[in-house]
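Subject: complex prediction, re-run

Hi both,

The earlier run crashed halfway through, so I resubmitted it with identical inputs.
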Amino acid sequence: MDLVKLFNAFPGAVSQGLVWGIMAIGVYLTYRILDVSDLTVDGSMATGGAVAAMMITGGADPWLAVLCAFLVGTLAGLVTGLFHTTMGIPAILSGILTQLALYSVNLRIMGGKANTAVNVSKYSVLVTSRNVRLLSADNPIVLLIVITAVLIVLLHLFFSTEYGCSLRATGANQNMARAQGINTKFGTVVGLMLANGIVAFSGAMLTQYQGFADVQMARGAIVIGLAAVIIGEVVFGKIFHSFWGRLICVSLGAIIYYLVMQIVLWLGLNTNDLKMLTALVVAVFLAVPYWKSQIKPKKRGA
Amino acid sequence: MKKILALILAVCLTIGCASTVLAEEKTYTVGILQLIQHVALDAATQGFRDALTEKLGDRVVFDEKNASGDSATCSILATDFVAAGVDLIMANATPALQACQAATVDIPILGTSVTDYATALDIDNFAGTTGMNVSGTSDLAPMQGQADMLHELFPDAKVVGMLYCSAEPNSVYQINLITEMLTGFGYECRNFPFADSNDIASVTQVACDECDVLYIPTDNTAASYTETIANVTIPAGKPVVAGEEGICSGCGVATLSISYYDLGYATGLMAYEVLENGVDISTMPVQTAPNAVKEYNAEMCATLGITVPDDYVAIQ
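This time it finished cleanly. Structure:
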């Protein structure tokens, strides 16, 4: 009986994982490709949610709303990029500054209200947690998988272009890239814009999924994003080596994150301890690659 | 792969339904989703549990979940309850209610500690009932009573400062209501929103400099940092009229208070009606707090040299 409860709860965890997987792909672009720790995402995800909520409740088409959320997200990335490249502020601090500013921006977007409801019964939305256990095409999991796949294909195509390659080179070795005549500053800005656009897009999806946008909705999002990236790498890194494969890893990582959370809840953990447990899970996944590297040399010696 | 998953799900659902039918004695599972650990919300949850336990004894099982302040966690806990097929969900605070409402149209949801259901659920022409699987209790403080109280205690004040957290929609809602009432008395109202605990002290300082009296609504953030606020208002000699007892006992002089325990208790009685008597939740009007009491903070009043009328009760 109990196991049934767990299985019943899996679709919810998977769809939430897919939404955060999109966000984690954005984090992957900055954290792994550009080699920049971008903390803007805590703000830009809520920005995406706010934009989508206001547009959808204003009667706009939900596809148009998520597109606009993406565009506004790129602006957030632009600000962080400019802080970093033209003002010489370290990347982490630039992100924190933008994130801070976005709190006020998000309030402005939502007309001074901290919370905007997007009632699923009233507006047409792309995904909703209400249909999460339907066995039909209305199930949010279906659309989220399609969107994730399209996103990965688009990113793969973009990063295969000459410009995309120069972006990857920027993250891999900035000095070398600069020596090749690549404008690394411009590249960093473009990367941050793209990443935050994706993050805002996922915020827009989350808003529709959970039925509201809240000014605090993405507080701590970066932790989930990083966790997804790391978990994906640790668990599936051996299977996927290509660029698009890595992005699939990230999405799967986010799903695993939420499945683990679900299992832990099912085991009866007091939800007051959830944050500590989350931190421990991420710490363990972060530690695994290190432990592996510690063990390997010994084996060779023996 | 997807087909297999779907099959497993279908089987699980069937087993789940079958076993519910087998359980003949009417035992109810009630999911409680609380937004954050907080004195007022905890009290409401406790009141809810006490009311239902009193009515149903051990025929009710509670599954209590706390989202620790993460609205995204609310969503996953809500879909959890739906997956587990609980008989009723009690959603404590606005984002919790929204997440539950997005997750199900079938399971009855009772909200509490939600101030304005029309805004929280985006209902046009709200007239007491939601018309869907949602009802509950509103923690809207008796605003006119609070405005009257402020006027009774401080008739000579000119400027009233509204101190609240900009992240809390309920606070903004109350501020808008009471501003209208206070302006009617001839006061000038100024807003002093703060974003989080970091800027409370400085925002409070500005408010003290510009105003004669401060008003704090039922604001969760302010409730958590009453000491910080008191440390500014006491040296400045500015009195604070508070929206609820918790804030008042920390930094206020007086309040017209509602009890969150009573509010939760009233919600529990509504749950009993839905579960045991089969009342249609979509026709149940949203209730407000049963009774409000004029209270004052004796120590604070003595410090600031304020005397309150006799019908005020000192906060213990």
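Residues 2-33 of chain A form the longest helix (32 residues).

- K.
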